[in-house]
């Protein structure tokens, strides 16, 4: 019988139903788990479910029974996948569940920033409408999406869906080629995307190559002073450089849903800029529509059931001997 341990159940909303796997098992759920608690909680587990708790090689060395680590998310940077491969542990993730929720959140941020919704709401609450003496006032710039160029960094499922939604608004959609490489089919050069976009939005994974992909040089290259949106991974952006770009006017606004440290330090750069009317900071909830979370939970159990039945579904690493051991 498999022992399944879910280390951070509170990363899914309480309303999300996690159905029982179809095989004999014992399931232990922890709402949260600290680094100091991790090894002792999974030392006798064969299947581990994790969202954000880090599983490094030193932890895995203390847990010889693990056969599967099922990540309840798409990104697997919380797991030392190479160490898992060396130890014969299969790592799986969740795919496709956010195809509506993340792109919709992205467009919500873009719409709010292009139309200065936050600034106008703040003004109304402060009594500016009454003080204006007329039916409306024009203290903040309002721009249509139609005709604006959106530069999408990341050509996968989410980036492509953002492109589809953007085209429905009449936007000029371009995909940025990878930095330092010739652009692939359907892409424009990296430098051109930075130089010519009115909006830049990130939908790429966080890797050693993309860590701090956007810093001072990249913001300085943005000639059209675009709105900058990140609903992917916080580590893609040098947050202090982003703060400087906002202060200098290199970008006209920012919509941020992810931060390098989550939650961010109360005195960190993103919290320092969060009260600006041209900044919207949301707490990593782009993925979290009710529908998307339930889809994630259903797919998670499907992946675990498939593993025990002998199929490596959504495998992040390739391990012929790790399936259903």
Q: How would you describe this structure to a colleague?
A:
There is one protein chain. With 325 residues, this protein is an alpha/beta fold. The chain folds into 2 domains: 2-97 and 290-322, NAD(P)-binding Rossmann-like Domain (Rossmann fold), CATH 3.40.50; 101-281, Rossmann fold. The chain has 12 helices and 12 strands. The protein has helices spanning 35-42, 57-60, 81-86, 101-114, 117-125, 128-132, 157-168, 190-196, 216-220, 239-248, 269-273, 290-309, and strands at residues 2-6, 25-29, 47-50, 68-71, 90-92, 149-153, 172-176, 187-188, 199-202, 227-230, 253-256, 279-281. Strands 8-7-6-9-10-11-12 form a 7-stranded parallel beta sheet, with helices on both faces. A 5-stranded parallel beta sheet has the order 2-1-3-4-5.
Write out key terms for the chains shown:
Rossmann fold; disordered C terminus; 5-stranded parallel sheet; 32% helix; 325 residues; 7-stranded parallel sheet; 12 strands; alpha/beta; 2 domains
The overall strand count is 12
CATH-scheme architecture of the largest domain: 3-Layer(aba) Sandwich
User: What is the average per-residue confidence, as pLDDT, rounded to a whole number?
Assistant: 96
What name does CATH use for the topology of the largest domain? Answer: Rossmann fold
In DSSP terms, counting alpha (H) and pi (I) runs of 4 or more, how many helices? 12
Largest sheet: 7 strands, parallel
Provide the spatial order of strands within the biggest beta sheet.
Answer: 8-7-6-9-10-11-12
- Strand/helix succession: EEHEHEHEHHHEHEEHEHEHEHEH
Alpha carbon gap, first and last residue: 12 Å
Looking at CATH, the homologous superfamily of the largest domain is NAD(P)-binding Rossmann-like Domain
């Amino acid at each position: 019988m498999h022992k399944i341990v879910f280390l951070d159940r509170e990363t899914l909303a309480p309303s999300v139903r996690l159905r029982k796997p179809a095989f004999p098992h014992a399931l232990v759920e922890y709402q949260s788990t600290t680094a100091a608690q991790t090894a002792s909680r999974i030392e006798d587990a064969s299947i581990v479910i994790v969202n954000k708790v880090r599983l490094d090689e030193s932890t895995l060395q203390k847990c010889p029974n693990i056969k599967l680590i099922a990540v309840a998310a798409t990104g697997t940077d919380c797991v030392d996948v190479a160490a898992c491969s060396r130890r014969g542990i299969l790592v799986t993730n969740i795919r496709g569940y956010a195809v509506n929720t993340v792109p919709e959140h992205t467009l919500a941020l873009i719409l709010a920033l292009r139309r200065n919704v936050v600034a106008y709401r703040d003004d109304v609450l402060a009594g500016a409408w009454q003080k204006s003496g007329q039916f409306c006032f024009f203290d903040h710039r309002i721009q249509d999406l139609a005709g604006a160029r959106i530069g999408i960094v990341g050509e996968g499922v989410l980036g492509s869906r953002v492109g589809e939604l953007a085209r429905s608004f009449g936007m000029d959609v371009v995909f940025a080629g990878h930095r330092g490489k010739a652009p692939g089919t359907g892409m424009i050069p990296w430098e051109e995307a930075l130089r010519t976009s009115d909006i830049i939005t990130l939908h790429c994974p966080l890797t050693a190559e993309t860590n701090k992909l956007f810093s001072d040089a990249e913001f300085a290259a943005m000639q059209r002073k675009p709105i900058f949106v990140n609903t992917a991974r916080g580590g893609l952006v040098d947050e202090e450089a982003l703060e400087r770009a906002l202060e200098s006017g290199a970008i006209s606004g920012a919509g941020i849903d992810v931060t390098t440290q989550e939650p961010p330090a109360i005195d960190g750069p993103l919290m320092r800029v969060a009260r600006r009317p041209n900044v919207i900071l949301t707490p990593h909830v782009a993925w979290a529509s009710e529908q998307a979370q339930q889809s994630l939970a259903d797919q998670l159990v499907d992946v675990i059931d498939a593993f025990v039945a002998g199929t490596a579904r959504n495998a992040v690493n390739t391990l012929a001997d790790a399936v259903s051991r």
